[in-house]
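=== RUN LOG ===
request id: a7f3
mode: sequence -> structure
chains: 1
length: 219
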Amino acid sequence: MLLEGLNFAGKSTTATRLTALLRARGTEVHSRHCYVCDTEGTQTLQLRAKSSIGGSTGRPFPDPDLLRPFNAMKSAQMLIDSELATDSVYSAGPEGPVLVQDRHWFTQYCNNGFFNPGEGYLSDSWVLTCAPRFTVQVYLTCSPAERERRAGRRDGDAHGLNAYLRANPKGLAALDTFCIERIVDDPSWIVLATDDLSQDEIAAHLLGLFDARHNAVRG
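=== RESULT ===
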């Protein structure tokens, strides 16, 4: 199960609840964030990407120069990790462990197109032929007002990109719309607005979808 979305959409909380529900019924489940395969290379690229954005206060939005190093390194991470994932236990079919993935290639693909269009970090052909496909792929979203409310309840930011997005709520809303437009007509994706749903309702809904599709694959 792949959970994508921007800041404060509910990805991490939903991933935690889904993992707990699956484990409670005895399913072997692994939970990952940002990359599928935990290697020195993916970890290094993650750390370097996070540290590349600093001093973003007062920078325009969108700022391609600010985001270029981050997007380059995160895209490299996606290329490497996606290739490694093809030989992982998660590619073994429905009998392998369940993977609950908190963000992977899609949000990064959209970041590239929004902040650094035309620079080709993750190409459309790569998306069509190489990007990992999950049994359930969901993009979580919420209204700008709800996102602002959630942001006000959370202290601190994990890295500079989060601070930059938090400081530009209108830009964040535009990026959210940009992401949704990429997949709104794609039947392999679910766009789920979380404003009026509890975390338990979101998790139960996605687990039901996963069970239905997983059972269909198993025949």
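=== NOTES ===
The domain at 2-218 is CATH 3.40.50.300 (Rossmann fold).
The first helix runs from residue 11 to 24.
=== END ===
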